[in-house]
Amino acid sequence: MDKICIVEGCPNKNHSKGYCRKHYGQLWRRGKITVGVEPVVYHKISEAMMCTLQNELESLNACYSNTVGFEGRIRWRRRINEVQTLLEKARAESNVHKIEAHANSA
Length: 106
Ligand SMILES: [Zn+2]
What we know:
mainly alpha; 4 helices; 60% helix; binds zinc ion
């Protein structure tokens, strides 16, 4: 019956808002999810990071649409905007065609 974390590849149990304790904590402390052992370094743009951001954006959008209540939605909206900004920056600094090909194959 226990739901698991909505972060892709994370087997941990759902703690809050669809995230496990670890990822929920990451989201609120740092405003982002780090997948795997390596922390995401934002000044070093990589394809893996783009994927992480895209996954995060999808997760946030899912949380946003599942959240009832104005205040909760405002908070998710703010996170979504932050991730979108980072994603746009990453896109601008990266090879757009490569990323698009990757996104389409997903
Ligand atoms: Zn998790």
